Amino acid sequence: MIRRAAAFVMTVLSLSLLTSVSPPAAQAQGICPYSNYCIWVDVNFVWPQCWWEFDDGTYWNDWCTSSGNEWLAANAASSYHNNGAPATYDVIRSFPNAWYGGGVLWKAFRGEKDSWVGSAYNDTAESHYWGVG
Amino acid sequence: MKMGLVWRLTLAAVAMSVAACGAREANAGAGQGEPELGTVPQVDSYDDLIFPLDSYHLSPEQQTTIARADDVLVHECMSRYGFDYELPDRTSEPELENRVIGIIDKDSAARYGYKPAGYQEHANRVKEAKSKEPEWTPEMMSVLNGKGQSEINGVVVPDGGCTAEARAKLGMKLDGNPGDENLVLRLEAMASDMAEADSRLKTAWGKWSTCMADAGYNYRDPWQANNDPAFGEDVATQQEIDTAVTDVTCRAEHNVNGIWVAVRTAYQKQIIAANADELQRHQTASAEQLQKATDVLAAQ
C-alpha cells in the first residue's frame, strides 16, 4: 500500500514538474545573441523569443523573432537571458509597464539566465533599459 | 484511511515542491483586511518621494562601486587565459526617473507624454556606447561564462567562468535570496500589486476614469492609458501629450497620487514587518559586498 501511495505521489510530482517547468518536446531552446537581452514566452528559454541590443520603452511596436511583432513579448516573459560582456551598459532593468513605469520588476545582470521568472512576475514585462550597474 | 495516507503524502510532496521554489516566494504579511493609511499626502513630483523599501537598496554610486570591482576581478581572471581588454567606463549617471506610479508631473506630460524625461538621451548613450565597444570573441565569452572547455593552456576555468569567480569573491548572489537586489525588487513589486488591488486605490482610479471619460479618454485605470499601444512612437504625438496632460489633471483633481503613495507605503510597511529577518540579512550581505568591492578597488 505504501509503495502504491509512493508511486502515486511520484506520478503527481512528475506530472507537476512536466507541466510547470519543462518545455514541450517539439520546441527547441532559443539562443540569445551576443550583447543582447532576450526574453521567452515560455519557461526554460523556449520559443518564441524576443531580443534587444538597446533600450525599448514599449513591447508593442517592433520586430521580434519568430512572431514578427513584439506583442507576443508584451505581457509574456517567462524566462530571460542577458548575454552581455562587461560593458558600460550591461545590466537590464525590466518594468511591468510601458515607458519604464511601475517600478523595476527585476534586474538582469550580465550573463544572468533565469529559466523561470516566478509566478508573481510571469507575463508582466513591458519595457526595459540598459543600466550602468 | 488509505486515501488519507495518499493525500497526506501528496500534500507533503506538493509542499516540498513549493519549498523548492522558496527563493521566488515572499511573505506578503498576514494583515486583517486592508492596512490603515497614514496621512494622505499631496504628490505632484517624484522629488523627495521616499518609500519604506527604498532604504534596502544600495545607492546608485554604491552599485557602481560594486560593478567596478566586479570589472576588475573579471579582468584579472580573464588575463589568466591570455585575454586583455579595456575596462568599461562606469561613470555614474542619473538613472531615468523611477516612476513607480506613472506620470505625475504636468510639465513632463506636456513635453514627453507618457515617456520619462531623458529617455531619448539615455537610449542614444546606450547605442553609442555599445557601438564603440569591441566585440568579445566566442573564446572570451566561453571563459567569461564557463560554457566552454574546463581547462585552457593548462589553466583550469572556474566553474561558471570568470563571472562566477568574481561574484563569489564579492559575495554577490543572483538567487533571489538575501544578498540579491532582486529580493527587494520582488517585495516592491508585491507591494505594488497589493496596492493596486486595494479598494481605496480602486475607488480613486474609478474617479480618475470618470474624469478622463468626461474629457473624451476612455481608460479603466492609469496604467491602461500609460500602456496604450497608440503611444508606442519614440516621440510623443499630440494625442499622447493631450491624453497625458489630462491624466495628470484628473489625478490631481481626485488626489489619486496621494492615495496611491499612501496605500503603497502601507503595504510596503506590512511586507517589511513580515520579512524583517530576510531584509536584515539582505542589508548585512549588501554592506559586506560593498566593503569587499571597496577593498578590491583600493588595492588597484
In short:
The complex is a heterodimer of chains A (133) and B (300). Chain A is an alpha+beta fold. Helix content of chain A is 15%, strand content 24%.
Based on secondary structure, the structural category of chain A is alpha+beta
Instruction: Compute the CA-based radius of gyration of chain B.
Output: 24 Å
Span of the ends, CA to CA of chain A: 57 Å
Give the CA-based shape of chain A. Answer: globular
Strand order of the largest sheet of chain A: 2-1-3-6
Most extensive interface: A-B, 53 and 76 residues
Q: What integer value in Å does the Rg of chain A equal?
A: 17 Å
Separate helix tally of chain A: 1
With strands numbered from the N-terminus, the spatial order across the biggest sheet of chain B is 1-2
Low-pLDDT residue intervals, each spanning 5 or more residues of chain B? 1-22
Name the poorly predicted regions of chain A: 1-27
Largest sheet of chain A: 4 strands, antiparallel
What would your notes on this structure say?
The complex is a heterodimer of chains A (about 130) and B (about 300). Chain A has about 130 residues and is an alpha+beta fold. Chain A contains one helix and seven strands; from the N terminus they run H-E-E-E-E-E-E-E. Chain A has one helix at about 1-20; strands at about 35-40, 45-50, 80, 90-95, 105-110, 115, 125-130. Chain A has a four-stranded antiparallel beta sheet, with no helix packed on it. In chain A, strand 1 (about 35-40) and strand 2 form a beta hairpin. Mean pLDDT of chain A is about 75; it is low at about 1-25. The N and C termini of chain B lie far apart (about 70 Å). A two-stranded antiparallel ribbon of chain B has the order 1-2. The radius of gyration of chain B is 24 Å and the shape is globular. In chain B, a hairpin with a 2-residue loop joins strand 1 (about 150) and strand 2. With about 300 residues, chain B is mainly alpha-helical. The chains are: A alpha+beta (about 130), B mainly alpha (about 300). Chains A and B meet through helix 1 and strand 7 of A and helix 1, helix 2, helix 4, helix 5 and helix 7 of B.
